[in-house]
Amino acid sequence: MSEFFTLSVLIATFASAVRLAVPYLLAALGETIGQRSGVLNLGVDGVMLLSAFGAYYAVIETGSHLLGIGVGLLIGVFMGVVYAVVTVNLHAKQGISGIGIFLFGLGFSDLLSQELVGAIQPIRKLPSLADLPLVGGVFEPLEDIKYLGELLFSHNLMTYIAFALVPAVTWMLNSTTFGLNIKAVGENPQAADSLGVSVERTRFAAIMIGNALAGLAGATLSLQLGVFQQNLTNGLGFIAVALVYFGAWRAKWVMAGAMLYGLVTATRLQWQARDIIPNSASDLAAMTPALITILALVLLAKRVRGPAALTKPFSRH
Amino acid sequence: MKRVLGASVPLGAALLAFVLGSLMILALGENPIAGGSAIIEGAFGSGDRLAVTAVRATPLLLVGIGITIAFRASVINIGGEGQIIAGALLSTIVALAIPDTPKIILLPLVMVAGMVGGGIWGAIPGALKAYAAVNEILSTVMLNIVAVQLMNYLLRGPMIDPIEVDGSRIPQTERLTDNAAMPTLVDGTRLHLGVVIAVLAAVVVYIILWRTPMGFRLRAVGHNPDAARAAGISVERNITMAMAMSGALSGLAGVMLVFGSESLRLVTDGSAAGFTGSAGFNGIVAALFGGLHPLWTIPSSFLFGALLTGATQLQRALQIPAALAVALNGLVVLFVVSSDRVGGWLEGRLNQGAYDSETAELRESAADDLEPEADLVSADDTAAPQDTVS
């Protein structure tokens, strides 16, 4: 245990926590935007699985990580359109239609990976910026700064994008017309409608952006791991949905929740690698974020109010 | 007309899924007719296959009727996976603790243990929703994770097969006592007593929901919590009860998965689906397809059991991955939940312009026939009236 509490190991753990938090963060930020518009998307996990496979397959075929990320994003947008049609236009029950999206993603990504790839092929993992040709010149010396370098400058592109999105999403929701419209249709769609805001169009856009971020989350997951396999997410997308409640629909608190999951996972992996705890106890440790989330929900449920129109379809009649 | 339309919803959804499934098989470069016949052959081709189909359908049916109870009370139970695992764990612990108990006592005891395990796992999110306003979708999802990790811990640690400790350390229990095994009904097939128990359970759930005061209260709470409260019904207690019953039935499904299996032991591959085969989710599909009616869920589960069994044959015969069945299940859910409004729109078209009133009427009748009226998800309001929220 004592070897864990050395500065270098703690820094390494924290740095890997930052990376591990990225898929949670991206997916949960996307879900935050969707829920702020009044639409719950329980299908995040399925969307992530589809884009994780899409990104992985694109890298196998072309070798380009950027293209992989682009494919993941596009799959997210496409699934966003499907989900928006089902929930916004067809008024389907949101909790259950999300399960439909999840099952479809779970099955279809597995089907495609067996059909197109077969046995698991590892791909080149998403490189850190310091290892890239152009920006590497800037990041490489920074990465060599003792401790701080590893913590702040050793990450890949998606990590920086994800954390940069936290203030960006906050700004969008609070300071742009589009963001204010999103919150308006999530709180009081009737009022927003009477002021000339198109509830359906605003929700449609919010869902598409939200799913695009879920797509990025899936792409990041498979490219960071360098593999795709059946049910790669193992429920990560469902946790992302819970993080939105955990973070009380605020981007920065959602980020705190994502970091909690990243930190617990990183610590567990570190302890396992150093034989500090046996495998079986590591399973117990894996429960802690879920238990903390439930506890947080119990404490917050009556204190924090979500978007008033969350899960309620809108019609003028 | 409305009745006809109500019945056409699952049929339309099935037809659409059928068409899309055929297209997928076509896209994979195979003949859809060959694919379809492989599925039918695999699911119904022989007495033995029919038995396998019934066995695959059993957990779906148990989870499905449990889901029906919860949904009828306006609680969305996404926690089937965790409840199955909790039931399987507790029943396995009982079988490990008293293996020499005679079958006539041990078998019922194991089933009760499974229902208690699953019931507790369901009652927790139920009570959290009723008394602390915690969204049940989130708490059940979290409890799924807790259950999986608990299973992984127990099977890698305290409950591991003693042979595996120094061996390959496969996370599984030892072979459980034959005194707790589900008795086979037809020799030479896998058809076991669990199939009959599940069908009986569906009938019992139907009677409870529509022929007893308790069922009336559950449905009243689901239909309109405020009116139910005004009539003196405890919304909190009924929500907790609905979730406990729902969980208990999923827990019983977990018992079937362990004690109806050929290996007769609890094994984990680290994920929930590895043990449950996603029955906790597929049961939701079966229940929705059965119109959230316990009796209709019987044929519906059988159908989805057939799809799962048939998909295995599809893989064997045409090398089309069995995962196709899971993807189709997802599409069926999407079609069923989307069909309400499409149905209304179609009928409006048929009746030339009477769209609005027709939709309203249709929605009302659909709410009476098929689903609780109050929005399933927003039922948080029942536990947290708006004015208490700061």
Mean pLDDT of chain B: 86
Domain count of chain B? 1
Number of domains as seen in the coordinates of chain A: 1
Tell me the radius of gyration of chain B.
Answer: 22 Å
Query: Which descriptor suits the 3D outline of chain B?
Result: globular
Helix content of chain B: over 70%
| CATH structural architecture of chain A | Orthogonal Bundle
Main sheet overview of chain A: none
User: Would you list the SSEs of chain A in sequence order as H and E?
Assistant: HHHHHHHHHHHHH
- In round numbers, the mean pLDDT of chain A is 91
How would you summarize the topology of this molecule?
The complex is a heterodimer of chains A (about 325) and B (about 400).
Chain A: H1 7-36, H2 44-62, H3 65-89, H4 94-117, H5 136-143, H6 148-153, H7 157-175, H8 177-187, H9 189-194, H10 199-225, H11 236-246, H12 251-273, H13 279-300
Helix pairs in contact in A: 1-7, 1-8, 1-10, 1-11, 1-12, 2-3, 2-4, 2-10, 2-11, 3-4, 3-10, 7-8, 8-10, 11-12, 11-13, 12-13
Chain B: H1 2-27, H2 32-44, H3 47-72, H4 80-97, H5 103-132, H6 136-156, H7 162-165, H8 193-211, H9 213-223, H10 225-230, H11 235-259, H12 272-276, H13 279-289, H14 294-318, H15 323-350, H16 355-369, H17 380-383
